[in-house]
């Protein structure tokens, strides 16, 4: 169908997988499309490195646990259930001082029956580390559940403050093939040039916000997503980091990409 219903619309697509399929669906209705994958995610199923990191945590029970994302914490515990040692790990982690990066991390912690000791001022890993440093880490074992592409400088800050740091990477991410497209997306969102944006995975949302805050423009991007741009997601899990910043995205009843595309087209008419 080529009905030109979206002839005056610009739609940004943040997915790396099946992005061309999405683009074709919108272009058939006359839309302009910006392909700007925000992240590439590497699966860690049966990951030997994650198992080794978990053994390191078990060998050095943490005094402090830094939870970057609820999704990452759940992925880590699910992998441990599969590979063994989950109950011992949960017991150790529940005894630690737990600091969370954002509301989703706090929700994941509390869903396990645990209580956190604080939440980062801004939803970034840097702010999470700063919270831990403020509370004090000298002489303590600190486990950090990493998120996105780890920043060695943040780990060094913890170590320089006297912590023994163990990193855990439940979801291994790679930079998008063209980071400049993400910069363009951020600039165009703030300029009001993006009519709609789609997300098919929560990490894609988180990566966009992380990059925006790294550039010092996080508040502007959040405001654009709340007020200027129609946001569409493939399902409620993807919506969680958006809900946390006050964005109520278009979300289909059937959690499929095709349904998301259909609902977004209707929302833009």
Please indicate the percent range of residues in DSSP E strands (runs of 2 or more).
15-25%
Q: What is the architecture of the largest domain at the second tier of CATH?
A: 3-Layer(aba) Sandwich
CATH topology call of the largest domain: Rossmann fold
> What is the rounded Rg?
20 Å
CATH class of the largest domain: Alpha Beta
Secondary structure class reads alpha/beta
The side-by-side strand order for the widest beta sheet comes to 6-5-4-7-8
Total domain units: 2
> What low-confidence regions span 5 or more consecutive residues with pLDDT below 50?
none
- Sum up the overall morphology in one term: elongated
DSSP summary, beta strand count: 11
Oligomer: single chain
Largest sheet: 5 strands, parallel
List the helices and strands in order. EHEEHEHHEHEHEHEEHEHHEHH
What count of helical segments does DSSP give? 12
User: What is the helical fraction, as a range of percent?
Assistant: 40-55%
State the distance separating the first and last CA atoms.
16 Å
């Amino acid at each position: 169908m080529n009905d030109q219903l979206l002839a005056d619309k610009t739609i940004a697509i943040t997915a790396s997988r099946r992005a061309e399929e999405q683009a074709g669906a919108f272009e058939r209705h006359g839309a302009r499309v910006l392909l700007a994958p925000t992240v590439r995610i590497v699966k860690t199923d049966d990951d030997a490195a994650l198992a080794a990191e978990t053994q390191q945590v078990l060998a050095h029970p943490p005094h402090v646990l830094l939870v970057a994302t609820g999704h990452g914490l759940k992925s880590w515990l699910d992998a441990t259930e599969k590979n063994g040692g989950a109950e011992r790990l949960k017991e150790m982690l529940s005894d630690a001082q737990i600091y969370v990066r954002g509301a989703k991390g706090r929700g994941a912690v509390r869903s396990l029956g645990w209580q956190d000791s604080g939440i980062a001022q801004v939803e970034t890993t840097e702010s999470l580390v700063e919270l831990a440093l403020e509370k004090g880490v000298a002489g303590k074992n600190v486990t950090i559940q990493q998120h996105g592409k780890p920043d060695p400088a943040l780990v060094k800050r913890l170590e320089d403050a006297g912590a023994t740091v163990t990193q855990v990477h439940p979801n291994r991410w790679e930079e998008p093939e063209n980071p400049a497209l993400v910069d363009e997306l951020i600039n165009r969102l703030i300029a009001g040039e993006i009519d709609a944006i789609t997300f098919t995975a929560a990490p894609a949302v988180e990566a966009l916000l992380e990059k925006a805050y790294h550039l010092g423009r996080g508040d502007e991007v959040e405001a654009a997503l709340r007020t200027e741009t129609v946001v569409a997601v493939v399902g409620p899990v993807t919506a969680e980091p958006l809900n946390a910043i006050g964005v109520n995205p278009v979300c289909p009843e059937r959690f499929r990409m095709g349904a998301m595309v259909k609902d977004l087209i209707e929302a833009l008419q």
